[in-house]
Amino acid sequence: MTGRVKSIKAESLLPQDIIIAVMGPTGSGKSRFIGIATNDAYSNVGHTLESFTSKVHAVPYVRPKQKDGRFILVDTPGFDDTHKSDTEILSMIADWLRTTYKNKIHLAGIIYMHRISDNRMAGSPLKNLRMFGKLCGDEALPNVILATTMWDRVDPSTAVRREDELKRDFWKRMLALGSPVVRFHGTFESAWQIIDLVANKSRVDALLLQEELVNLKRQLSETQAGMVLYNELQKLLADHKETLRRLRDEAASNNDKKLKAELDAEYEVIQQKLQSTFNQISSLKLSFTRRIALMFGKKSRITSNVLTGF
Taking the model in full, what pTM does it have? Predict the structure, then answer.
């Protein structure tokens, strides 16, 4: 395939398509991976940690000498997107997964990307991993490839040590349930070695989120992923409140007019973030009646225990 390609709608996917979702935190290299895998036919690529993917893009690619079907590489936005809220991101991904599942279109698997250049697993990467675990469910993990990226940006010995830490501390259970760990080295050959690992597996029957939304007819806020996001937002709200309290105290006790003006401006920014977080929490909050209904309602046959305890 030559030239630029446009993403296609979920409704245009075919049962014979080999569909692989590419997920992971903002800046982990998802768009770059797809761009390289499609010989630069896909150009939705940025060069910073700022998000360049603010919606789901399903990118078709026919491999040279490929006889049957198309590869569809699905570029998904990460949480902590620079342009959209976490609830908007989850809703977009959920809508795409709901539509494909209703149309009996099944994923071949998922490539989950993580920057090996990150010196620790915290903040956005850890939240993304928690959300990912609850979105997939344990039964899909044999079809999940854990791909580390940006090996060229780190000293090799440091990168290997970080990879070992991921396997030991954060990905241990995923590995035990069948998720292999691979390295993406930024080449066409490396990309297709990873894609082939997914393509050679049997297709995923359903992700946990699909099971909850379609089979159990739950609202997004009632899903495991929605509940994890709700808890994450509660923590973020508490952090914003503490920051506001500190800034208010500092501004009140400081006689430096310039510094006070800077503190007041920062206070307004945090106030806006607090309101945004509060709005997201409100949209995910369950009523008492729905909580009772969920307690006694039908349970999903798919479980998710990834990252329990973290």
Answer: 0.83
What would the pLDDT profile of 111-136 be if each residue is shown by its tens digit?
A: 999 999 988 777 778 888 989 999 99
Q: Which residues pair with 22 in a beta bridge?
A: 75, 111
Buried b (16+ CB within 10 A) or exposed e, 35-53: bbbbeebbebbeeeeebbb
* pLDDT tier at 287, thresholds 50, 70, 90: low
Cα 192 from chain centroid (whole Å)? 21
Do 96 and 7 touch, CB atoms closer than 8 A?
no
Domains of the chain: 10-214 (3.40.50.300), 219-296 (1.20.58)
8 Å CB contact between 286 and 222: yes
Contact (Cβ atoms closer than 8 angstroms) between residue 112 and residue 174? no
Question: Residue 84 has which token pair?
Answer: 């959209």
Tell which wins on pLDDT, 232 or 68. 232
**Contact criterion met (CB below 8 Å) for 37 and 73:** yes
Report d(CA 306, CA 301) in Å as an integer: 16
Chain segment 257-279, per-residue pLDDT in tens: 788 788 888 888 888 878 888 88
Among residues of the chain, what percentage have pLDDT more than 90? 55
Q: CA–CA distance from 140 to each of 10, 110, 194 (Å)?
A: 20, 9, 17
> Helix, strand, or coil here: 80?
coil
Write the DSSP symbol of residue 26. T
Our CA angle for 134, 125, 167, nearest 5°, is 80
Helix axes 86-102, 257-284, angle to 10 degrees: 30
206 φ/ψ angles, rounded to the nearest 5 degrees: -165, 140
Amino acid (1-letter code) at residue 36: I
